[in-house]
């Protein structure tokens, strides 16, 4: 490959040999290529490194920041951070005290000493003019002509061509997230204690590059150097850096559609499928262990029951530097559960209430088996609310036990297994082969929702939900009006035919019937959309669909019931699951 020129931050030139190409029709062969020795992921890896966020462009002179009612010219670094907050003025985050406090503390650290002397109170800061500037800018982008939008697309495509592909063992493979995340304010999920903190700009000096020794090593932007260059063929990432909020590593990885990612996905679901053959033995054993003389075994057995039946995460999985009080199964405390001998007509009810991964609240009332309930009473005896529920257990102990039950078994494998089995069973129970495609899709989303509820995949009701429902309702009302009018037209046509018995009048009746049928189908489809939208407003269907559900189940269902695959998976997802589309027929069973 010829030597490539240097690039500046946020800019690039065409890269020979790394352009896009259509997916080969012989994709199946990719999964059948010779396997490498254990641990080795590739022998050749060549790429251009990350595409860095563009440098900050200062605000125009007529767009001002005000403090205590007076305009105040900010230094460049202070102004840039002010724009991060200004852009979010219409978002719920900026109403939260913890977000405001974290932002203001971090912002003041970046101010000049003169600015720190003046700006001491966030309530006296007026970002409205800056906010309006970015709203207007956004509206102007939306109003661009078709030609102008095409020009922007071509520029983006050029960057994708240069940075978005690598050469991996002779294959041109797409890279997933080839851009570094721009600086901004950390949001986090749920009520994350670090929300509002400043995400700093990633520089080449923060980045570790990984490639093969014999490749052309990517050149850093002019005037910069990489933190390190590695030649590690036992990992699949191309570049990495540590972000400053959670102090966690971030990676540039291959696109999900790549061979390595596809193989990893396939193997993940095959491990979960193997659990199907031994899960009855595992369940039988943990029931026996509920009565064990060893407290450690009892606790392990109850925890495993929760992981199996409630798809709880194992716990103790916090990232370094994470301060949120999040827990999983093994790290539950006494205060996180309440026991009810009877509740709402059910016996032996456990009420869970804790913050799980990403500070998402897990709240559930579950009727459990009598021995589980009795054991929980025993585990809680003489303990304070802040004491560990499972004081003889941690994730290491649990994972060693799971490995002894089946090679490769983990809490996540249980989660994947139960999610996939639930989807398969729900699809069988809910799908009516006589339904039209819209009706079948409603059944699919209901099956998917059962999985999302099992896995506690929640989301806040989207900001645009009410407006979007109003728009949909307006369409439904308009369609109902059209149906009523079509019914009247049909009645008139039938009356005319009764009077005349004319062939032309008879043809008109048939025409009106077809029109009415088409309008009624359209109305039914809109009603299904409204039901689907309402039922899913606080459920995140995408997480389980992309990470926990064997895609072969969905593809087999599509093939069996004549539903186009693109109705379930978009283009990117179809590329990610290309291996499954090639493998699964309509008779596939998880």
From TrEMBL:
Q: Which CDD domains does the UniProt record give?
A: Topo_IB_C (cd00659), Topoisomer_IB_N_htopoI_like (cd03488)
Q: Name one GO biological process term.
A: DNA replication
Instruction: Please report the stretch or stretches of sequence annotated as the DNA topoisomerase I eukaryotic-type domain.
Output: 185-562
Q: Which reaction does it catalyse?
A: ATP-independent breakage of single-stranded DNA, followed by passage and rejoining
Q: EC no.?
A: 5.6.2.1
Entry annotated with the keyword NAD: no
Q: Where would one find coiled-coil regions in this protein?
A: 135-162, 469-536
* Gene Ontology cellular component list: chromosome; mitochondrial nucleoid; nucleus
Catalytic center residues = 548
SMART domains in the record, alphabetically?
A: TOPEUc
Return the similarity comment.
Belongs to the type IB topoisomerase family.
Under what name is this protein listed? DNA topoisomerase I
Give the lineage: Eukaryota, Metazoa, Chordata, Craniata, Vertebrata
């Amino acid at each position: 490959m010829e030597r490539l020129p240097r690039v500046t931050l946020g800019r690039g030139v065409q890269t020979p040999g790394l352009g896009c190409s259509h997916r080969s029709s012989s994709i199946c062969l990719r999964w059948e290529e010779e396997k490498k020795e254990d641990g080795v992921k590739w022998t050749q890896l060549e790429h251009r490194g990350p595409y860095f966020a563009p440098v900050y462009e200062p605000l125009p002179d007529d767009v001002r920041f005000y403090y205590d009612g007076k305009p105040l010219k900010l230094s460049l670094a202070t102004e840039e951070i002010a724009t991060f907050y200004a852009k979010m003025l219409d978002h719920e985050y900026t109403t939260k005290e913890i977000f405001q406090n974290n932002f203001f503390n971090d912002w003041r650290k970046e101010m000049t000493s003169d600015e720190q002397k003046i700006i001491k109170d966030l309530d006296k800061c007026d970002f409205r003019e800056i906010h309006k500037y970015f709203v207007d800018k956004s509206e102007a982008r939306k109003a661009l002509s078709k030609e102008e939008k095409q020009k922007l697309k071509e520029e983006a495509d050029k960057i994708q061509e240069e940075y978005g592909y690598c050469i991996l063992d002779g294959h041109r493979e797409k890279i997933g997230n080839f851009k570094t995340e721009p600086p901004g304010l950390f949001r986090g999920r749920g009520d994350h204690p670090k929300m509002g903190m400043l995400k700093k700009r990633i520089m080449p000096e923060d980045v570790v590059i990984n490639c093969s020794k014999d490749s052309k090593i990517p050149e850093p932007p002019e005037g910069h150097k990489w933190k390190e260059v590695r030649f590690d063929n036992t990992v699949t990432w191309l570049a990495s850096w540590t972000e400053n909020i959670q102090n966690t590593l971030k990676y540039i990885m291959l696109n999900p559609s790549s061979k390595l990612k596809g193989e990893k996905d396939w193997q993940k679901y095959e491990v979960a499928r193997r659990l199907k053959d031994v899960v009855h033995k595992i369940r039988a054993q943990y029931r026996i262990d509920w009565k064990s003389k060893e407290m450690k075994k009892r606790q392990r057995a109850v925890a495993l029951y929760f992981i199996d039946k409630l798809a709880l995460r194992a716990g103790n999985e916090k990232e370094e530097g994470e301060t949120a009080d999040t827990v999983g199964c093994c790290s539950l405390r006494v205060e996180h559960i309440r026991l009810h001998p009877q509740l709402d007509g059910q016996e032996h009810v456990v009420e869970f209430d804790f913050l799980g991964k990403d500070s998402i609240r897990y709240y559930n009332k579950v009727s459990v088996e009598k021995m589980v309930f009795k054991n929980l009473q025993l585990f809680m005896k003489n303990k304070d609310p802040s004491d560990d529920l499972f004081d003889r257990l941690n994730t290491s102990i649990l994972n060693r036990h799971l490995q002894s039950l089946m090679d490769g078994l983990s809490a996540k494998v249980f989660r994947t297994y139960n999610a996939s089995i639930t989807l398969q069973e729900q699809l069988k129970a809910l799908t009516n082969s006589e339904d039209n495609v819209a009706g079948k899709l409603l059944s699919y989303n209901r099956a998917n929702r059962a999985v999302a509820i099992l896995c506690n995949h929640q989301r806040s009701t989207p900001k645009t939900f009410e407006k979007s429902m109003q728009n949909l309702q307006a369409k439904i009302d308009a369609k109902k009006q059209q149906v009523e009018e079509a019914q009247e037209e049909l009645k008139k046509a039938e009356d005319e035919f009764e009077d005349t018995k004319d062939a032309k009048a008879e043809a008109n009746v048939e025409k009106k019937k077809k029109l009415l049928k088409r309008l009624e189908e359209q109305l039914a489809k809109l009603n299904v959309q409204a039901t689907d939208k309402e039922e899913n407003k606080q459920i995140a269907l995408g997480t389980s669909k992309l990470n926990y559900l064997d895609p072969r189940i969905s593809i087999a269902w599509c093939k069996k019931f004549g539903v186009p695959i693109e109705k379930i998976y978009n283009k990117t997802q179809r590329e990610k699951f290309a291996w499954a589309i090639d493998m699964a027929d309509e008779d596939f069973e998880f």
